[in-house]
Automatic annotation (TrEMBL), chains A, B, C, D:
Xref: InterPro entries: CTDL_fold, DinB-like, EgtB, Sulfatase_Mod_Factor_Kinase, SUMF_dom, SUMF_sf
Iron as UniProt keyword: yes
Protein name per UniProt: Ergothioneine biosynthesis protein EgtB
Higher taxonomy: Bacteria, Pseudomonadati, Pseudomonadota, Betaproteobacteria, Burkholderiales
Pathway field: Amino-acid biosynthesis; ergothioneine biosynthesis
């Protein structure tokens, strides 16, 4: 295949996957925004399209005709350079454009994109197209987590894919395969090169590659399981202030949390709990990695167990030696620029850099991450209290400091 | 026709009208709740059905089968006697039940209701059925105002019925027919019987009928027009604190209001304004009655003009002599029980009485009120800052007090 | 005495009483504003002085020198006509001016006022002086209630006047003298003149005098006692939604109230309760009138007892036949202008009229009302949830409506 | 001198300094809490005393008598292990205990402490006493910043020490001595030992000492000056979104900030600005280091200038080669535990560790830091938007990453 063919095929494949992910939804499911962090599925479908329209077509194709003059206002997420945009919490107030109109928008943009992708591209344009596809893959995971939130917080608890036969293998969410819990890998203290190198795609926040010094630690092969987390709960984990950050303790007290998101008491289960999954409400799989925990909970659990969370560099140094990719793994590293990081010029420079304060880095990927999107140097980031993503906990044991 | 036939026909007519009002909507339009006061159309369709299911079928028909065990939780509005219910601001978070499922719910309840209505009813049950129909008619007006809010606050400003050929005559909204502005009716000071008498239906808050003393006043035949309101705006009405209640002034300052709801600056219009209507964005009709004003605005306008709002009894004493029914007319009367008012026993006792504090009475009806639902003794009520209903202003001139 | 002497004596007497009320306080007690409704005692002392400076001296005395150019900004309460003022919730942020500086401000203004009052005054000026004194008397009651709030919400519960020997007879707060509880007065249905007549001082909201129609009712000679209120509490009064206004029920649920303000559980008391008074924490006096209840609580109590609150006109028609003046008595009347009410021109027109929405009228007076300040036609007003004033409950029994 | 004498002398010296810092205040100045972060001076005086009473006397002296049973509730800041405490935002609601009573509390505790300190102490107890003194020194700086906030946000702008002759040299606040602005120190890329070593006192968050890898950078000898910051402002620094973190931009837009805290427009100054200092409102000293900037502002300034903030390790590696101690210098390092950090057992373990999320490290000290309290390894920490501390900006120039 020519490079153009490869790119075009990839474009079509990425774009169609977003639509397939929404196929099991009713029109109504595309609309709500139950909390500010969760966007309507319809919005994701349109926003990813707006990205190509705005940063590729409108800038590269002189004769490109905007699909609708107001869609830029509606579907810009946060790019200040691209002008005013709808306030984020208002996304769920919009019944229009309808799903059908959003699909027409996608078709309109895809048609122009496909025409363009048949021709060779300037490297800078090719990079923007690639960025658009990576961006859409990020939103594909958000589609899954936001759909789970919308359906899972509905008192009717409808399943997204009850039989597990849909576009994404949702049975992987509660897969109970688990390495031995006492299997720890030794990571030696060392100065080691971190971050993205080489020719493949990476986001700007993974660069520049640089040396980092890590301490010697042991890192566990297995993620923390539901069963281990239940022991923490039964031992009063949510009632003991000493295990928590001060603001984590406030969070727990104010919101009266006593379990991960989506768990619900179920007297019919031996362990007393069920949880909502994309297949509907199910018993817990005891050996599956615990998920939907906040950074506060991940920290408190580790404190209780006598462990701690890894730094992002400890994680990166060890990850090739264990199996990762089932949960986004909270690290104790705050999200900061790498030494020498410089944001790009223009709107694309807003992609990552401006979020580098007050967030924690998560490493790895989750079962809901799009195929081909995971990477050892990938840096995901969320605020400490958030837990609607498929987060998890990987334990580290400190050694004496050098 | 037998009384049973009459009642059945009326039931079918009322119920089908709700569905026809939603016919121009997309499935998506049924979902959002952009502010707490505005409910999703889907919710109105289900809640009015729940009313019949809960207060009639479940209590009167021993073999009635609930359509869904959780719908009581989802679609109870505020009846504490009927158990827990979804918090009001969460209504827009629900994508399920879908519109189709809500329609199936309606069909299920309607089938049982129709069967029941073929037989003679105990008077108490007949009264509940009538209350259910009156209740649904109230929600039909809310359907229209809530649909207007959802579409009118969408930056795309889609029309509900662009051609004015739908189930409700939306051209009446901006009808500019207007009596002479200097036509005032004299109402003599008198002691006069107020409130509902006789055999027809009325809500409990219209009773008991009782004597009220009113002062002599002049009341205008015409409502305040858009043109008059524009003069108030041009004369600095929104900038002069002395015209406003203290909390009205705070409201104006905080929310930066400068015009009624749905007005938008339009440099292409001679008067500088357009407004969103159910037919889409249109120029103002200068002689149409101003609408979508809060009690604060109605009061400030009157203060500016040297007039005041009527009390609800002045209104009721005079209304047979002028044409009313185009706007809900703010009165200066706070919503209080009539002398001798006693709430009913049971859940139905929650219908009106518990709202009798901190609201203003509105009298009359609006162009969006359901056919046959208006009544001279009708007491509508809203909080002072609200303006998404089709409210209006009727001027009164005081005379010297006796 | 000449009219000038009488006025001067009254001025000195009113002014000095404010200072005497603060005599038992520490300097620190003059500073806090624990909630927005409660102002620092220092602020009351300065604001009442600002009233004379602004509305009398600065306007009438050409050579009057403002004490400080910024005090107008600091001590204007809400008179928009007099320019910008400190936001109300900021009053407790100010440590300066100190109490001593405020006292110097008072002395400065008093000196000019005394000089002026020695001469005959234009009637309009005399009216402003009188208004200033009435205004200061209103703030004297607020001084007492605000001091009670500041000290009573301090976990140390310091007494204002432990021995009851201070400038105000604080033992009257818990005086248990009580008329027979089954003594009811009959008020006949009638048209009767209400509101202020005659030459004495009254606030603008008491005028114009006008005819009102009242229904026949029975009104109780005794206020509701602590003992009666305890029966309501023991009978689940705070747990039964059907007794409450909808917004009252929200208020109770959200704030978890279970008793009047200042009550605290005390296992050492036979009735299980103590309460904070200006003499410190004491047992309840069972026959003393219950106090510190909101309108919501007053309404719920009456609903439970099978009674209701009086309208303000029922109260005014009957009050000459019972003993009143111990508690501000909630009425079911919303605060509205009397027929023919017109606000005064200028800043003084802001005194009352702009608050005539969303408040309830209270009639009578309380033990903390300044001597000579009570009046049968007096209309006090507060928002329904407030209860830091010395409020009380007078029962009415409805008869059949006419 | 014996070790006991040295310790006793130090104790008396530290304790008396707190009281001297409050000497210029009125009683009223000790009371307000204008925002939640700013505590009343009275509270600082009592809380530092409570620390000795609770962690030393009550635990070590069997016959120690608590001064007041409720002071633990009032003056515990956040030690969950020590039981319930007053909610932080309520500190300004308390007029009692008065300043005099707080001084009596101090005298009571000091008397017991002095008696105890005359005898040799167990090392663990000696460490707690030392911690108490260090803790009080931290609160001495907070006393200065909180006093500045209380007086500086009062519209009267009273000076704390107009002549600069008080207990602290307040003229140092606006000292304009400045090294050359183009003087940069080269820091080589290296692995270097960081954190506290040796026998002297340090807080737990400075340990363990460990190796860190730093990149080669240039660090400027001079802090950013008022003059440089004015250039940033004039160049639209507060209006250009691209310079800011996303949440910094929200902060600027929402709060409408356009200059550092305490700056106020002054048309009489050539540069257009004055600022409030502890000597009262003054012109800016152009070469003095800018202060009262948030982390967001420090970051935006550096981004504008083409520089960046140092990491805390770059700072520590270079600080011995420049003059520091005038401003707390924001670093780009998030506040995280050092490798191998373990919190202490018991209440003292709450001292630092539980705050290690969502804050930025500041290094150095300020002119208001207590004598003898500064240290090269000291780690101060605040949330990104806070700016009432004496913060400053030290520029770094990146080199190419290794």
């Amino acid at each position: 295949m020519t490079p153009e063919n490869i790119r075009l095929t990839r474009y079509v494949s990425v774009r169609s996957r977003s639509e397939r992910l929404c196929a099991p939804l009713s029109a109504e499911d595309h609309v709500p925004q139950p909390v500010s962090d969760v966007s309507p599925p319809k919005w994701h479908l349109a926003h990813t399209t707006w990205f190509f329209e705005t940063f590729v077509l409108a800038k590269q194709q002189p004769d490109y005709r905007l699909f609708h003059p107001l869609y830029g206002y509606l579907f810009n997420s946060y790019y200040e350079s691209e002008g005013a945009h709808l306030a984020r919490p208002q996304r769920g107030s919009l019944s229009r454009p309808t799903v059908a109109e959003v699909m027409a928008y996608r078709a309109h943009v895809d048609e122009s994109m496909r025409r363009m992708l048949k021709e060779p591209l300037e490297p800078a344009v090719a990079a923007l197209v690639e960025l658009g596809m990576q961006h859409e893959q990020q939103h594909q995971e958000l589609l899954i987590t936001d759909i789970k939130y919308i359906l899972g917080h509905n008192p009717l608890h409808p399943a997204y894919d009850p039989l597990g036969i849909g576009p994404q293998d949702v049975t992987a969410e509660h897969d109970g395969t688990c390495p031995p819990l006492d299997d720890w890998l030794s990571v030696e203290g060392q100065t080691i090169r971190m971050g993205h190198q080489g020719p493949g795609f990476a986001f700007d926040n993974e660069s520049p590659s640089h040396l980092a010094l890590i301490q010697g630690v042991d890192i566990r092969v297995a993620l923390v399981t539901n069963d281990e987390y239940l022991q923490f709960m039964r031992d009063g984990g949510y009632q003991r202030h000493s295990l928590w950050h001060a603001e984590g303790w406030d969070w727990v007290q104010t919101l009266k949390f006593r379990a991960p998101m989506y768990w619900q008491p179920d007297p019919n289960q031996p362990d007393g709990w069920g949880h909502y999954t994309l297949q509907g409400v199910m018993p817990l799989t005891s050996q599956a990695p615990v998920t939907h925990v906040s950074y506060y909970e991940a920290h408190a659990f580790c404190d209780w167990a006598g462990w701690r969370l890894p730094t992002e560099f400890e994680w990166e140094a060890a990850a090739s030696r264990f199996d990762w990719g089932r949960r986004w793994e909270w690290t104790r590293s705050a999200y900061q620029p790498y030494p020498g990081f410089a944001r790009s010029e223009g709107a694309v420079g807003e992609y990552n850099g401006k979020f580098m304060v007050n967030q924690q880095v998560l490493r790895g990927a989750s079962w809901a991450t799009s195929p081909g999107h995971a990477r050892l140097t990938y840096r995901n980031f969320f605020h400490a209290p958030l837990r609607w993503q498929f987060t998890g906990i990987r334990p580290v044991r400190s050694r004496e400091s050098a």
